[in-house]
Amino acid sequence: MKVASDLMVDIPTLHYDDYVTKARSVLRDDVFREVYVVDEKGRLKGYLDISDVLRVVDTKSNVTIKGFVREAARVGPGTSLAEAGVAILNARTNSAAVVDEDGVYQGGVLFSELFPVLISRRTIPGRVEDAMSREPVTSAPDEPIHRIYSLIVTSGFTAFPVVQKNETIGVVSRRDLLRAGNVRISVKNQADTTVERVMTTPVISVTPDDTIAAASRLMVEHDVSMLPVVDEKKRLAGVIDRHDVLSGRLP
């Protein structure tokens, strides 16, 4: 049976004295939502995620990452994949650090890579309405980026449905903001760059009556972490993400 080391990837690492601007560059250019922080001996000290680096909008800032480091989910190389999933769910992260018996960082297990393996091993019971988050925070397409930027930083959510006239027309995520090269300037200057310019379309959605298993397959097929949940009139009823799918459903 596969264990954590079988899915381990080389997630970038930083040190306490690295600048936030460096962390932002790494997270913008790589596929990772989180990077790990190690000491001079390679021992794991914590992690930093996209929301953390979004808090500093000055492109010339000399702020170091030390004050933004959080406690990381950690597993051993021989940890089962189910246990690795539980560690990620408990920490509400998108990865877990793999460390040896001395706490030295070896690599990381991505939830996006772990998720398809875990759902393939069992039939996830229930319907979307049983697991979805209700009354999600949403955005309008004409809202200024700086408001959504602030919401992402303060809420911790990874993405928001974009709603126009009660219909979900897109999704705006943390990565969308980082990929848009002019967004930091817009935020800093309170400019009127709108969500519509950076949101992802078309929308992949599910209904409350769809099975959780079907929703999880859509997440894997389209490589997305969150799906809007819409009713028969295409109105937003909630959202469901990878954590919602597996929460309480792993041994």
TrEMBL record:
Transmembrane region(s): none
Domain of life (superkingdom): Archaea
Pfam assignment, any one: CBS
Signal peptide, first to last residue: none
Keyword set includes Amino-acid biosynthesis: yes
GO biological process terms on file: methionine biosynthetic process
Domain CBS: 7-64, 132-193, 199-251
Keywords: Amino-acid biosynthesis, CBS domain, Methionine biosynthesis
UniProt xrefs under SUPFAM superfamilies: CBS-domain pair
Protein biosynthesis listed as a keyword: no
PROSITE patterns: CBS
PANTHER family registered for this protein in UniProt: CBS DOMAIN-CONTAINING PROTEIN, CBS DOMAIN-CONTAINING PROTEIN CBSX3, MITOCHONDRIAL
Protein's name according to its UniProt entry: CBS domain-containing protein
Organism of origin: Methanoculleus formosensis
